[in-house]
Amino acid sequence: xxxxxYKRIVLKLSGEALxxxxxxxxxxxxxxYVADEIRSVCDLGVEVAVVVGGGNIxxxxxxxxxxxxxxxxxxxxxxxxxxxxxxLQDILEKKGLETRVQTAISMHEVAEPYILRRAVRHLEKKRxxxxxxxxxxxxxxxxxxxxxxxxxxHAEILLKATKVDGLYDADPVTxxxxxxIDRITYLKVIENHFNVMDMTAISLAMDxxxxxxxxxxxxxxxxxxxxxxxxxxxxxxx
Length: 238
Known about the structure:
- By secondary structure, the protein is of the alpha/beta class.
- It has 8 helices and 11 strands.
- It has helices spanning about 30-40, 60-65, 70-95, 115-125, 140-150, 185-190, 200-205, 220-225, and strands spanning about 10-15, 45-50, 100-105, 110-115, 130, 155-160, 165-170, 180, 185, 210-215, 235.
- The strands form 2 sheets. It has a 9-stranded mixed β-sheet with strand order 4-3-5-2-1-6-10-11-9, sandwiched between helices. It has a two-stranded antiparallel ribbon with strand order 7-8.
- The chain is globular and about 50 Å long.
- The two termini are about 30 Å apart.
- The relative contact order is 0.16.
């Protein structure tokens, strides 16, 4: 099989990715599956960092619909990402992988604080680093946190796991005539307001020429195939 094309990657996982077929929380089967997918890449010698969302537990933006202020709501969302990160860490370590959780909000009893140099050293030692609590700031999504961490750690690519095959010009779940887009520029994503990542994340990736791949997590082996250089999902680049 082809050798890995990347030395270091960042994987963006939404909180919803951990729900499986549930409507809330963490699916035991799904988190095991995700851990197996990550291990398949680690076994190739690739350095892997993961940014996890918290939408399966609490979503800050949605809290505004019942009158909650955005700042405390976003802080609650950040704490939800820590819960998901600790769960993923536990499963990965049971599968024999060394891991570290680093949080943008200090909570020394449960995880390391985010320190860039320490994160890079962990990656160099082939530990999976899970970045939790987003950027540590309200009004910024975990998509933006993923791009930021990818830039800071000099990852070569950011892979965003979704429940669809990639980027479409409309929602493929509700529109059967939606067209699949295999390659597109950052600017076209912004101009067309494609809701694949928030615009702050896309703009940050564009400013730093960080390639993004949107792919279907539920197709087993997709993550490893992308790392080996196959054209899977949708590529957003220059």
